[in-house]
Amino acid sequence: MVLFHRMQQHLITIRRLSIEFLCLWMLFFVLIYLKHELILKQIFQPMGHDIPVLATQILSPLLIPIQLSLDFSFFLCLPFAILQIWRFIRPGLFKMERRFFSLILLLSFSLFLLGLCFCWFWILPFLFSLIKTTLPIGMLWMPSWNSFYEFELMMEGFFGMAFQIPLMMVLFVRLQLINFSQLKKTRPYAIVAAFTIGMLITPPDVGSQILVAIPLCLLYELGMCLSFLGQKK
Predict the structure, then answer these.
(1) Are 48 and 128 in contact (CB under 8 A)?
(2) Model's pTM, two decimal places?
(3) Average pLDDT, the chain
């Protein structure tokens, strides 16, 4: 009976949090939709405003602002969702576990934002500039909205997750799932994997692949240094 009562309380809490999340999502959706033109200008900033983006579908003028508002409002709601999930599971943790996971969440979110900024202010502008300079003579580059937007989202999400690499390496070493010697031995494979990923997610030119692969290699090296300093004696 007690177990059933606890389960019922948990379900009520989850339902309440879900409703709060949806309400906040809709609120952000309305606010962003009202300012979608300003956000569109910022989205085109890394590529420059000299390249036209094609809306190839009949309903694109209507769907693009809605798609943009849904995606951005959901992203803005994520910190709220993570905070609510943390408040939900926090009472079941010991004091040391609370401190540990609080630090992990804070570092993870900070690294994710750092990865987004790194991609936005450095990777994307350099990549688009490289594409424009290597364009063959007589050829016009006019990407469609879907391909342009999906590419930006993919690159942003990729670098946001890639910046978790040092934290995950330190975490695995601290939990003794792996050790520094194993990380050192897998370094050549990590370099090959970095260049393979760069080849898969970028246009087929060497410059773009190197542009993605080098930051990944540096993140792995940073993770190795931090793992060496943070390993248990």
Answers:
(1) yes
(2) 0.84
(3) 86
